[in-house]
Amino acid sequence: MLRIENLHVSIDGRLVLRGVDLEIGDGETHVLFGPNGSGKTSLVMSILGYPGYRVLSGRISFDGVDITDKPMDERVRMGIGVVFQNPPKIYGIRLKDLIKIISKSKMSGAEISGLMDRLNINSSLLNRYLNVGFSGGEIKRSEIAQVLTMKPKFVILDEPDSGVDLDNLQLIGRELAENLKDRSGLIITHHGYILNYVKPVKAHVMVNGVIVCNGEPETILNRIKESGYRWCERCYEMRRSERL
Amino acid sequence: MLRDEEIRKALEKPAKYGVDLDLSRYEFGEAEEFTEIDRDVSKRGMEVGVDLDKKESLSTFLHVDYSTVYKSVQRQFKGDLELMTIDEALKKYDWVRDLFWKLRDPCEDKYTAFTALNAKGGYFMRILENRKILIPIQACFLLFTQGIIQPVHNLIIAEPGSEVHILTGCTIHPRVTRGLHLGVTEIYVRRGAKLTYTMVHRWGPEFDVRSRTGILVEDRGIFISNYVMLGELRTFQSQPSARLIGSYSRTSMNNVVYLKGNSEMDLGGEVLLEGDGSRAEIILNSVAEDDAKITTRGRILGLANDVKGHLSCRGLMLSDRAEITTIPILESKNMNSELSHEAAIGKIAEDQLNYLVARGLSRDEAESLIVRGFLDVSKMQLPKPVEEGVRRTIELALKGF
Questions:
Q1: How large is the average pLDDT for residues B326-349?
Q2: Chain B residues near residue A98 by CB distance under 8 angstroms
Q3: Cβ atoms within 10 A of the Cβ of A238, count?
Q4: How many CB atoms are closer than 10 A to CB A244?
Q5: Which residues of A touch B313 (CB under 8 A)?
Q6: Mean pLDDT calculated for residue range B129-147
Q7: CA dist., res. B136 & res. B61, Å (int)
Q8: Per residue in B228-272, pLDDT tens?
């Protein structure tokens, strides 16, 4: 589904990804861990083709097609959907307006109302301007609702569990688990709470703009919980010295 | 009379804001004979939210140039509402004189002075105590003769406990290019009454407008004003001013403006929170395209206990040659008043565009959605047919976006 090779990316002249390799197979969900500022969100934006993220070298292919130089709208049309961590506020556009536009020809009215019910999105939230005065939980539920309405082949979730209380986490977790059954995904998480609901097949850890280790999600998460990311930083240093 | 002399002197006095106009540039006194409401007129009416084809079934007031050509009260509301010309009202009730020129000063500037000395018509609306008029009253001011000044003076009284929505559409016949509309409107919202006052304007590229609106709101009264102006004009200036003298009275002023061409507009809104617990919200949203210049001024004064006011001025620039200025003013003279404002001007934000593109919209679709969002009228809670009319007008003005 997704294949990233030796990806180097800069933003405003600052190198943020320094040779990322990642491969996610059809129908697989992976999880990406990493300390703050390690480049996780930059990787998401680079996969999406968000303006400003400049690929210096390396390659991204999606569904067998090289998308390294394709614009964002094309990648979205190919089936990449991203749940953003900090979406912008947009006055004047209601959540329901956007859901309606996204759903065009993709989802029936009944399907939409089912999804909104399961995500506990009521008409009062639907009638509010996008992300204006939304709570942490409301932002996540709105983001997930929009992205699932797009019916993407590949879902990227940037910190779906940050700033969310337990009730919201359960709601989101169950809906994501159900929806990730028949598509591929990449979940970024700092704390790993979402893994109580969603079970990825593989985990990766990013430090300083590179992926330093890959493995079984539970094992890696436990290790991070025990020793913190310092343990990963050691791997980073090891890899660096190997390369040198 | 001394007063008249004083007013005559004010004929030379420029307004505090806006471009100064030379009143001698316009004709005044004679108008062409208005024959009928033809298709051009009813189409223009629809564009400002007034359905003249339904004038028999809705409460309607139609004023053309200097005279009232039609007025009627919807059958089911007969006895709930008095609708007449201001001259009829002044003759009928002595007390109308006591409410006349009390909320605006005739000596304020040359426009009020001209209207005080020369007003030809205007409506008088009085909603009787505790009566609820659930279907909007529609009033339309049309300028039919090229190049004239149209001075009108309106008076609205919502008696205690009454409720009404007044929709005023002001426009010109499509053949008219030049002229000046001077509208003075005084609005009294009595104890516990609720008045919604919606005004939609559509003018032409050489047309000038000066309007002077004064509002007084008593205990627990609610005044909601909605103003929509789309397209082109030459110059416009208005600063409606509301005094909330009643305790727990409320007002909300929503303005949506989209200007093109060489239009120059100075639009304000002012609320004096004089009653304990009174509340005000002023929203001034403006979009400027081409060479349009827009100044928005909001002013809220906190003068009593536990009052709250919020002011929002947002401007969207769609051209490098356009100009937007926003001047928000908050003044507090009471420790227990809470006033806030937000103001922002800019082009369409890249992060918003990219966000929508990431959701599958094309860049063009995303832009058009953001601009339409700026002109969102759904917050105005207009009656459905009116909202649809206004939306159609927005679509018309936004052609190409």
A1: 95
A2: 356, 359, 369
A3: 12
A4: 5
A5: none
A6: 95
A7: 12
A8: 998 999 999 999 999 999 999 999 999 999 999 999 999 999 999
Is B359–A97 a contact, with Cβ atoms under 8 angstroms apart? no
Give which of B283, B359, B394 to mutate to test A binding, by max A Cβ within 10 Å. Answer: B359
Q: Where are the domains of chain B?
A: 2-347, 348-401
Residue in B285, B358, B362 closest to A48 by CB? B358
ipTM: 0.95
Mean pLDDT of A145-149: 97
Q: What CA–CA distances, in Å, run from B169 to B49, B120, B200, B226, B366?
A: 6, 18, 5, 12, 31
Contacts of A91 in chain B (CB under 8 A): 314, 373-374, 376
Region for residue B66 given its phi and psi (left: phi exceeds 0; alpha: psi -120 to 50; beta: otherwise): alpha
The average confidence (pLDDT) of chain B is 94
Taking the C-alpha atoms of residue B383 and residue A129, their distance in angstroms, rounded to an integer, is 21
- Nearest CB to A146: which of B350, B359, B375? B359
Measured over the CA atoms of residue B27, residue B28, residue B30 and residue B34, the dihedral's sign is positive
Mutate to test the interface with A, among B284, B355, B375, B394 (most CBs of A within 10 A): B355
What is the chain B residue with the closest CA to A147? Answer: B359
All residues at 6 or more sequence positions from A158 whose CB lies less than 8 Å from its CB, including other chains: A40, A41, A44, A82, A83, A84, A85, A188
Closest Cα in chain A to B314 = A91
Helix H or strand E encompassing B128: none
Tell me the C-alpha distance between B387 and B165, whole Å: 13
Task: Examine residue A98 and state whether it is found in any structural domain, yes or no.
Answer: no
Q: How far is B295 from chain A (nearest CA, A)?
A: 20
Domain count, chain A: 1
B256 touches chain A (CB under 8 A): no
Q: Are A105 and A98 in contact (CB under 8 A)?
A: no
Residue A41 lies in a domain: yes
CATH number (domain holding residue A64): 3.40.50.300
CA distance B254 to chain A (A): 13
Q: Which domain holds residue A188?
A: 2-85+154-243
SS (H, E, C) A146-215: HHHHCCCCEEEEECCCCCCCHHHHHHHHHHHHHHCCCCEEEEECCCCHHHHCCCCCEEEEEECCEEEEEE
What are the DSSP calls for B309-348, one per residue? EEEEEEEEE--SS-EEEEEEEEEE-STTEEEEEEEEEES-
Q: Quickly state the pLDDT bin for B36 (edges 50, 70, 90).
A: confident
| A117 part of a folded domain | no
Decide if A73 and B355 are in contact by the 8 Å CB cutoff. no
Residue A99 domain-assigned (yes or no)? no
Instruction: Inspect the interface and report whether the beta carbons of A91 and B354 lie closer than 8 Å.
Output: no
pLDDT tens-digit readout, A220-244: 999 888 888 877 777 777 777 766 5
